[in-house]
Design brief:
Largest sheet of chain A: 7 strands, mixed
Strand content of chain B: 5-15%
CATH architecture of chain B: 3-Layer(aba) Sandwich
Number of domains of chain A: 2
CATH topology of chain B: Rossmann fold
Helix content of chain B: 40-55%
Shape of chain B: globular
Structural class of chain A: alpha/beta
Strand order of the largest sheet of chain B: 1-2-3-5-4
Oligomer: heterodimer
Order of helices and strands of chain B: HHEHHEHEHEHEH
Largest sheet of chain B: 5 strands, parallel
Number of strands of chain B: 5
Distance between the termini of chain B: 14 Å
Number of domains of chain B: 1
Number of helices of chain A: 12
Distance between the termini of chain A: 35 Å
CATH superfamily of chain B: Thiamin diphosphate (ThDP)-binding fold, Pyr/PP domains
Number of strands of chain A: 12
CATH class of the largest domain in chain A: Alpha Beta
Shape of chain A: globular
Chain lengths: ~300, ~280
Amino acid sequence: MRDTFTRCLEQEAARNPDLVLVTGDLGFGVLFPFMKAYPNRFINAGISEQAMMSMAAGMALEGKTVVVYSIGNFPTLRCLEQIRNCCAYHEVKVKIVCVGAGFVYGTLGMTHHATEDMSALRLLPGVTVYAPADAVQTEAVMQRFLTEPGVAYLRIGRGGEPVLSDPDTLAGYQTGKAVPYQDGTDAYILTAGGILPSAVGAAKLLAEAGYSIGVASFPTVKPMDEAYLAELCGKVKVLITLEEHTIVGGFGGAVCEAVSGFADNRARVVRLGMRDVYSSIVGNQEYLVKHYGLDSASVAASVQAVLEGKA
Amino acid sequence: MSFEKSRDLSYRVRRHTLDMTSRGGTAHIGSIFSMADIIAVLYADVMCHDPHNPQMPERDRMILSKGHAGAGIYAVLAECGYFPTEELMTHCQNGSRLSGHVSHKGVPGVEASTGSLGQGMPMAMGMAMAAKMNGQGHTVFCIIGDGECDEGAIWESALIANQYRLDNFIVTIDFNKIQSLTSVENTIQLEPLDQKWATFGWHVIRVDGHDHAALHAAYAEALAARGKGKPIVIVADTVKGKGVSFMENDVLWHYRTARGDEFNAAVKELEAQQP
């Protein structure tokens, strides 16, 4: 996802002379091609995320499209009020990128686990939240991310994620649209971000147990695709949300908010993710995903328990 | 020179803002009075701006980072002709566009909304950075508070502005020595404040922030320092509540609203100073 991001960024920079890249002293190697190609449009703000975010807003007030790059919680929670006051309230084109969604930097410890960022960014008026699942989805959302008005947030992985999305399906992607992966009649597993393979794997395991499970991913978490959720609520009684992130106020929370507002055809929503805890477990992304019950086998077991009335 | 224009403007700013905060029942009159002479000098004689064309591309930018003194900016803008002075009486009234902390929404002449300390200065710095990138010749002015210098983002910005040699960026510190609960000295000491900024790489000017002749000279020096590789800071020694004897140097007037006899006494003192 990260390499796709930088490639798309460089393409847009070639098209838009007002695009500026600002980093909080991160992106070693990754940002070098941009720095070389556009040295006058690259700012290293140092390890100063709060000033960096306000500065980005000031530049954007002068007509720049400012892409702010960092990792983990540094471009989000560290400077959340600056995003709110300086960026979102001023309705400027500041585009915030977090590399390291969820447990991407798992072994580095809880400071580097981006597990509350979607909740935090989602609650700010005027901020669009993108959480693509793989490189294909990243490429699909990048044009929208960089060119639509206002503040946007993009959370991505570091690279090497399995590609499950179909480029043809994603062509001409519109912000706010869910991407169906497979249909089902018993339940749907809905995902945001790089956890999609767990949902697909779980659906496969459940198929072997005789269940028909649909899967869809949401490259845009805000605005939520309520029309698609309404459609699903007319088809199945259970929606499972799956995210490498807290279940409080994140993607699952967004689905709950939407579904609870439907006048009829409501489904039960069961949220899978971090259950309101920080991880102090040491382990890589795969290890932590499994520890918190977000791998295919664990998700399949959770879904089966719900469908059998045991959870 | 007698600096009649800026002296008259500073009087009008104090007179309006006394009415505005009294009518609105709002705070920060001490913080407004301490910077009244600074903004009067800036808007009367220093900045390039056009009330009839607030978005003029070549205008100088001004961000009030100590947004709690926003009534002062509204007053100076209205006196300059950005909007009718009659609107000032809607300050902090229900349905008004003039909020207690300065807002840019629908208010001509206000570049950005502030109020959360430590955010206006880096925003202004971003504007200065963009001006450099665009090859534009205007200057970005910013006023910060002394208490605001407790914020880490002020010093982050001081480092970044030096690194990128933003010599089109002029920050003025309203150094009135009193913050929210007590004096600056008894809160987080800042002195030697001018030396701190100098070691951060800034061109530092220290001035009496109520002496119009000195302020004009300070801004003339600051404008002459543009293009010489250093961001510029003016440390303006000021008096909180300047202009009304019983408000001066009293932390009470960070929050208190003048009403009744106090209001009448303040009006009398100010009107006695009318140029």
